[in-house]
Amino acid sequence: MIEADRVVLSTPGADGLGEVVRALRAWQYEGAPMQLHPGDLGWHWRFGPEATAASTRTWSRDGRILAVGLVDSDSVRLAVAPDARNDEPLAQTMSRDVTQPERAGFASGNGGIEARWGGPFEVRLARDGWGPGEPWTPLSRVLGGRVEDGRLRTEVIGPEQARVRAAVQRASFDRSTFTDDRWHAMAAGLPYADARCLVAYDDQGAAVAAATVWSAGRDKPGLIEPLGVHRAHRGHGYGTAIASAAAAALQRMGSSSAVVCTPSSNIAAVATYRSAGFRALHEVRDLHRRTERADRSRGEL
């Protein structure tokens, strides 16, 4: 634990993740910058609560969490409380921590930093030689009115279908290591109490697409993370259908909108979401050392 300017950096234990999830839920609202969502923590939970806790960082003052980071390979994804975006002492401590791996236990001080709220934190990083990297496209679909499920038969997956869900994931992402055991670990996590896994089937009964959706609570934006189409069944509109089904599932859970963020270079993914009624928002960029190659791809979206 490190303390400076009354801002305390911590790595929570597994028993402290509930407080982190509650903080992330509270920070989600319509119109907010798209930042770390409780569903991001929930998807990471597939590696188990201990690994999730070890990858989580919090910055607190007087016992209140002001910011959360999730270490993702050699990068860190961040979120801050809405009223702390312009907090100078917090920005000073966070900028030092995320760029000095020996302080926060990050794998590298040169990895990407996902920080989408601007303010003094980004100003400090710019002064230290950090600049914009790979562009990402956030997309959002407001869930007012009727949302169609899509033209495919779609089922909510429970423990008995975990193997099917895992198989579609692996067939959708070349580097996926998702298994039914990891599905069970994810489903046992705190965020999954407000989540659903969906699998879509074609007319012959083959599982062709899948998605997991995460609510942050009623009248808050819900996250799609991840969504994929089986590589043997692409080109038939199944991506649009599962994206529509995911939005409908979030609507039934009380979410105000469905949100997702995808690399802008993935033109097909952006087009798929747009065809499912999502609106592309302004591009955002991770931050990278200007001397480093400014591109990154996460293992599974």
Strand tally: 14
CATH class call of the largest domain: Alpha Beta
Radius of gyration: 19 Å
Q: What is the 3D shape?
A: globular
Mean pLDDT: 92
Percent of sequence in beta strands: 25-35%
Low-confidence stretches: 292-297
The largest pleated sheet is described as: 8 strands, mixed
CATH superfamily of the largest domain: Gcn5-related N-acetyltransferase (GNAT)
Estimated helix fraction: 25-40%
What is the helix tally?
A: 10
Could you list some keywords that capture this structure?
301 residues, alpha+beta, Aminopeptidase, 8-stranded mixed sheet, 6-stranded mixed sheet, 10 helices, 29% strand
Report what the structure shows.
This protein has 301 residues and is α+β, with helices and mostly antiparallel strands. 30% of the residues lie in helices and 29% in strands. It starts with a strand and ends in a 12-residue tail after the last strand. About 2% of the residues have low confidence.
